[in-house]
Write a structure and sequence with these properties.
Blueprint (H helix, E strand, L loop, with lengths): L7 H20 L6 E3 L3 H7 L6 H11 L8 E3 H13 L8 H11 L7 E2 H10 L6 H11 E2 L4 E2 L1 H8 L5
Antiparallel strand pairs: 1-2, 3-5, 4-5
Helix pairs in contact: 1-4, 5-8
């Protein structure tokens, strides 16, 4: 990873690689420059990318160690792939206005919230269904425990990623 002074592009690549390595190492519990393949989704999302499950599986197929059973990903294979993903700005988050419109479509009564039951039904039976774990994670953040509803404008404000 040689850096050339005065080259903005090389400096940007070095910064991206540094960020990827920092996040990767946070999940490398054994200090072996490898992580459990099941952690790749969290690592990718921590780096500000939000792929669909299909896209995540495609990414995983590129970086997973085929020779070592047990589902591990090594840094040397992950780093160039993830660097390209970040440089290409792939898997960007959905814009706030698009999220709001999606929730408004689901809010048939136009009351500013969706019941837990309706949301679970929509997200586990339609489109790319949420797993039980994904549903629990979402509800832990989105659900108002007193009313058992999701006030989606408040929830969206928690989801929006600042582009700095």
């Amino acid at each position: 990873m040689a850096e050339k002074e005065g080259s903005g592009e090389d400096g940007a690549v070095a910064e991206i690689e540094k960020k990827i390595i920092e996040v990767f190492e946070a999940f490398d519990n054994e200090g072996s420059n490898s992580v459990d393949a099941r952690d790749i989704g969290v690592i990718v999302r921590t780096l500000g990318c939000f792929p669909t499950e299909v896209e995540l599986n495609e990414l995983l197929a590129k970086v997973e160690d085929e020779e070592e059973p047990g589902g591990y990903v090594h840094l040397e294979k992950f780093l160039p792939v993830m660097t390209k993903v970040l440089l290409d700005r792939r898997y960007q988050p959905i814009p706030e206005d698009v999220l709001l419109h999606a929730f408004e479509v689901l809010d048939e009564k136009k009351c500013g919230y969706i019941t837990k039951e309706d949301l679970v039904k929509y997200l586990t039976e339609e489109g790319e269904p949420f797993t039980e774990e994904e549903m629990e994670n979402m509800l832990s953040v989105a659900l108002d425990p007193e009313t058992s509803t999701v006030r989606y404008r408040n929830y969206i404000s928690k989801l929006v990623v600042d582009e700095t």
